[in-house]
Structures are given as structure tokens and as C-alpha cells.
């Protein structure tokens, strides 16, 4: 069984959709979480990680879906190799979510288009 969740949480939103195979979530969450909502929360929380952008670009390409990355800091804490991969992911992304205007402005000044 699959379900789709739109960007606003409504299934009829066609901008960005997250398709979830509930059997996978059930398998991953068995004995770890008390309900599917907790498993979904964990999946979304882990998507806000630098490694999600690094590995997500390859997964999105293989799945044939749009990539959305996120930035929550200025990137100064990452090793050079990870910074290169994160920049590559941001460049390939359909959208980049920033948690603050300062973060958005920082990356826009370094070549990431403000439209993303």
C-alpha cells in the first residue's frame, strides 16, 4: 500500500509529493516506534541532514524524481569532500530549503540561484 503526502500535507497538492510504501515504514519501524506517524517524523527529520543531500542526489537520479536539498548552516563544519558533494547536490536540486534568510543569502552569494 502506498500513500502520497503533498507539500502542505494534503494529497491533492501537486508541487512536491512524497510517496511512502507503508510496508517499508512498517518494517523499519517494527519494535522501534509505536506508530506510523512516529516513523514518518523520523524519516523527515533525517532528511534534514547533510548526508541526505549527498546520498539523496544519487537516489533521486536512480528513482527519476526531483531532488530537494536543505541547508541549515553555512557549511564551515564539513570536510572539503563533503562540501563539494553538497554543492553538486544543491546545483542539481529542483529546490533548496534554507532554515534562515542568512543561510539563503550566504549560498546565493556563492552562486546558488536565489530562485531555488
What is the approximate shape?
elongated
State the order of secondary-structure elements, H for helix, E for strand: EEHHHEHEH
- Report the C-alpha radius of gyration, rounded: 16 Å
Q: What is the helical fraction, as a range of percent?
A: 40-55%
The computed structural class is: alpha+beta
Proportion of strand residues: 15-25%
What does this structure look like?
The chain has helices at residues 22-29, 36-47, 50-63, 80-92, 101-109, and strands spanning 2-6, 17-21, 68-71, 95-98. It is an alpha+beta fold. It has a two-stranded antiparallel ribbon with strand order 1-2. It has a two-stranded parallel ribbon with strand order 3-4. Helix 1 (22-29) packs across helix 2 and helix 3 (50-63) crosses helix 4. The longest helix is centred in the middle third of the chain and has 14 residues, at 50-63. It is elongated.
Which terms would index this structure?
48% helix; single chain; disordered N terminus; two-stranded parallel sheet; 4 strands; 116 residues
Briefly characterize the structure.
The chain has 5 helices and 4 strands, in the order ββαααβαβα.
What order do the helices and strands come in, and which of them pair?
Layout: E1 2-6, E2 17-21, H1 22-29, H2 36-47, H3 50-63, E3 68-71, H4 80-92, E4 95-98, H5 101-109
Parallel strand pairs: 3-4
Antiparallel strand pairs: 1-2
Helix pairs in contact: 1-2, 3-4
